[in-house]
């Protein structure tokens, strides 16, 4: 019998379930993988040779494609990953061949306050410890590849500073005239390390490098991670790696990884990482884990490769987009689907009574502190007011032409009256609604959700993008701000406006996708504004360029590419049982 999630922590539930989990060979066999397509890492997880699978099954029709998104969350999160796993378990209970495709967690939130995103309760991806602590090394490969580009940049700057053109020529180098005040990239590390956001490097003598301002970003914000998420195969990946803009020269021209002659070596670090990882739910359904970009500062999707493999092997593949419909789903819709050529059959919007109360006027919960008592007592009025945010998210999905399914991710503290209010309002808006108790009961608790999603997948949809790639950049930003976020318009800093005009004047740059950076805690760019804010304009303070990934990245609000570690981080409660070697305290 599984442990009761109302009495035990997630890591304890996972540890108990792992005693009876399937071997990776059983998972692969049930999924229909051939022996040479499985690359095992021990007995319980491994990688899949995507190229062999896609070649063998190239003529097989794809299964149904489902995306899981959410309403604007509280800082505690509303259970998208848990719902993704629970939905897979529920569809599995209905006798369907089903997979999940989720992101690999970053060490930053795992060791901070958010947790590892393995799911929760009786709907988790296992084994939990390797999932949470590096898995098969993909993020380490990303860090090595990315930081190698910075090594190539800084060493070239040092040599150009110290040598004449003639001396450079003898070393088979040409002068790139890199502008130290216009370096696009930073170093990366996979932790939330605010003290590394802004640093000075090259202190010392002539042999200690070129002195300049620099800094660190979190690994999952790296363009290499974004490329892993959107690349379709090795050839596509290699081409994208060579287009990464590391810096600009003194005339304002881009200096790429290809210019630095490092793109090939960076790709070499990433060869194994291109193969998606294969794990399982607590109930034994296969889960692909691949790529892990954040959604508020990056694309927020698992990989196209994982989805393509899963859709060839299963009747249903459930993927998850980071954060809410305004961020994760918008990027799934207008970026991931555009690059993959895949079209979803249904979209699940996860809502909790807790988040609805927050949007309806309850005190905002603070991670690491007890949840306010207001959330433990019935308040239908707050819930009804909070559904304004949910209805806004439903309309975002409808703009894409896809049938939405609202999942009320039920907590055992929710009341019948609160749940009835949500169902009544959502059904009046033309959305399917299902109450799911997968956290507490696993697949059995997700049967209502599974049935609603299967039904939605059979409905004809009319998928369409919000914009075409010939739409000017500022028009795109306005479309996203006004039609997705609900803003009254867009304002730009002088620097962002100049960059936008330059991009629009460049035929190659003008056709890149648009990947917004914005807080996930509000539809607006102010995290303190809940519900559906009115009378505001999106402020774009900067625009970054990810030519390799194929993105232009407008940055709105006070968002940093390096999060900070809180005063009560998770690592304070993580330890190892020295008798068994088991890790305890992960969540």
Q: What is the strand and helix layout of this fold?
A:
Layout: H1 10-18, H2 24-31, E1 38-40, E2 46-48, H3 50-56, E3 64-70, H4 80-93, E4 98-102, H5 107-110, E5 119-120, E6 123-126, H6 128-132, H7 138-162, H8 165-170, E7 178-183, E8 187-189, E9 199-201, E10 212-214, E11 216-218, H9 223-230, H10 234-242, E12 245-249, E13 254-256, H11 263-270, E14 277-281, E15 286-289, H12 304-313, E16 316-320, H13 325-340, E17 346-351, H14 353-360, H15 380-399, E18 404-409, H16 416-428, E19 432-436, H17 438-441, H18 447-457, H19 473-485, E20 490-492, H20 494-504, E21 513-514, E22 538-546, E23 551-556, E24 575-576, E25 583-584
Parallel strand pairs: 3-16, 3-17, 4-15, 4-16, 8-11, 17-18, 18-19, 20-22, 21-23
Antiparallel strand pairs: 1-2, 2-14, 5-6, 6-14, 7-12, 9-10, 12-13, 14-15, 22-23, 24-25
Helix pairs in contact: 4-18, 7-11, 10-11, 13-15, 14-15, 15-16
Question: Which labels suit this protein?
Answer:
single chain; 587 residues; alpha/beta; Rossmann fold; Domain 2, N(10)-formyltetrahydrofolate synthetase; Formyltetrahydrofolate synthetase, domain 3; 3 domains; 12-stranded mixed sheet; 4-stranded mixed sheet; 20 helices; 18% strand; globular; one-carbon metabolism; Formate--tetrahydrofolate ligase; EC 6.3.4.3; ATP binding; Formate_THF_ligase_CS
């Amino acid at each position: 019998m599984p442990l009761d999630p109302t009495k035990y922590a997630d890591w304890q539930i996972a540890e108990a379930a792992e005693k009876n989990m399937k071997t990776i060979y059983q998972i692969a066999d049930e999924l229909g993988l051939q022996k040479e397509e499985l690359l095992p890492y021990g007995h319980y997880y491994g990688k899949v040779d995507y190229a062999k699978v896609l070649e063998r099954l190239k003529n097989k029709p794809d299964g149904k494609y489902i995306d899981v998104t959410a309403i604007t969350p509280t800082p505690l999160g509303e259970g998208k990953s848990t719902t993704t796993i629970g939905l897979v378990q529920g569809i599995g209970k209905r006798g369907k061949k089903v997979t999940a495709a989720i992101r690999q967690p970053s060490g930053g939130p795992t060791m901070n306050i958010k947790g590892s995103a393995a799911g929760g309760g009786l709907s988790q991806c296992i084994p939990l410890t390797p999932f949470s602590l590096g898995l098969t090394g993909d993020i380490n490969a990303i860090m090595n590849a990315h930081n190698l580009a910075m090594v190539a940049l800084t060493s070239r700057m040092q040599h150009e500073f110290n040598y004449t053109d003639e001396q450079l020529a003898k070393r088979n180098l040409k002068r790139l005239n890199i502008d130290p005040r216009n370096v696009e990239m930073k170093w990366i590390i996979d932790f939330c390390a605010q003290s590394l956001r802004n640093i000075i490097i090259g202190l010392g003598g002539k042999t200690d490098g070129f002195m300049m301002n620099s800094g660190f970003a979190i690994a999952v914000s790296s363009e290499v991670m974004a490329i892993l998420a959107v690349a379709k195969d090795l050839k596509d990946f290699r081409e994208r790696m060579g287009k990464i803009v590391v810096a600009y020269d003194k005339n304002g021209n881009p200096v790429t990884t290809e210019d630095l002659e490092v793109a090939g070596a960076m790709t070499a670090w990433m060869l194994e990482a291109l193969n998606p990882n294969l794990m399982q739910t607590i109930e034994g359904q296969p889960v692909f884990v691949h790529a892990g970009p954040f959604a508020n500062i990056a694309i927020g999707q698992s990989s196209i490769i994982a989805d393509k493999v899963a859709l060839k092997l299963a009747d249903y593949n459930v993927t998850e987009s980071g954060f809410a419909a305004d961020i994760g789903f918008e990027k799934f819709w207008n970026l991931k689907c555009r690059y993959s050529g895949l079209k979803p059959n249904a979209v699940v919007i996860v809502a909790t009574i807790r988040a609805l109360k927050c949007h309806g006027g309850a005190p905002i919960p603070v991670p690491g502190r007890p949840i306010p008592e207001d959330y433990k007592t019935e308040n239908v009025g707050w819930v009804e007011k909070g559904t304004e945010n949910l209805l806004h998210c439903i309309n975002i999905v409808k703009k894409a032409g896809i049938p939405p399914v609202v999942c009320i991710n039920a907590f055992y503290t929710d009341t019948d009256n609160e749940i009835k209010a949500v169902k009544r309002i959502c059904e009046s808006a033309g959305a399917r609604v299902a109450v799911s108790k997968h956290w507490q009961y696993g697949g059995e608790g997700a049967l209502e959700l599974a049935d609603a999603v299967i039904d939605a997948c059979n409905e004809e949809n009319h998928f369409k993008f919000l914009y075409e790639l010939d739409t000017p950049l500022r028009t795109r930003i306005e479309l996203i701000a006004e039609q997705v976020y609900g803003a009254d318009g867009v304002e730009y800093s002088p620097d962002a406006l100049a960059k936008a005009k330059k991009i629009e004047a460049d035929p190659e740059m003008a056709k890149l996708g648009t990947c917004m950076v914005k807080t996930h805690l509000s539809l607006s760019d102010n995290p303190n504004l809940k519900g559906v804010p009115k009378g505001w304009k999106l402020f774009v303070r900067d625009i970054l360029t990810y030519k390799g990934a194929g993105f232009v990245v407008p940055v709105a609000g006070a968002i940093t590419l390096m999060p900070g570690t809180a005063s009560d981080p998770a690592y304070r409660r993580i330890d190892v049982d020295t008798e068994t070697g088991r890790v305890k305290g992960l969540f």
